[in-house]
Predict the structure.
Amino acid sequence: MSALVVVPLLLGTPLAGCKKISDADASRPETARAYPPASRPVSQLAGNQWSTETARDKVGEAEEIMAAAGIEPGMTVADIGAGEGYYTVRLAEKVGAEGRVLAQDIDEAAITRLADRVARDDLDNVSIKLGAGDDPRLPENSFDRVFLVHMYHEVREPYAFLARLRPAIKQDADNLGEVIVVDVNRPIEEHGIAPKQLFCEFEAVGYQLLGFMERPELGGYFARFRPVGKAPLPGRIKPCKMKSSS
């Protein structure tokens, strides 16, 4: 008799623990739902080759950006959204044999092609990693610089992504790491993001803007950020309203 009473109660117990997912969250990764959703449109993935490497080298893009970022031999650098490896191979040369470069992308095919290129060029100081759209999956307290070049406007979960990026940036008293962003000041639908929107989203997750310069001849603008203070809890992050493109 007692077994007949217990079984219905056990069957009903899991139902009480179910949490209804809102329509707004239904299309989001479960791992990102603790964070605010993007409060702006998100660019569709546009492929991994922003421009030809020859054209970019003609205007000295990588050399100028690496100089502005303060890249030096021996540094450990991450290239997020590495694609075909334009910055990866140049960063590898710049940091030298004592430095390290971690090239990351969420596109498995691109990662495979980049791994082939790294092997072909004997880049022993480069590692390859597959990331996720809401998590760069980087080791903690590891990087002097993290590069986000022509890719941030495609990040579908900016607040989760930036929050999970913070721990990877070196925070030693004598060695503070930075995030380097290169993007274009134009509508997100045209694969860019307004600087004001960029600044607001980084600030919302506890980053400080260190420097900014407009460089249209290099394909857009350059910004430097550093995490400061304690990271805000996911529920305390205030999403940014869409800013103008100025």
Q: What stands out?
A: The beta strands are 76-80, 100-105, 126-130, 145-149, 171-172, 175-176, 178-183, 207-215, 220-227. Residues 1-18 have pLDDT under 50 and may be disordered. Helices lie at 2-16, 23-26, 53-58, 61-68, 86-95, 108-120, 158-165, 195-204. The chain has eight helices and nine strands.
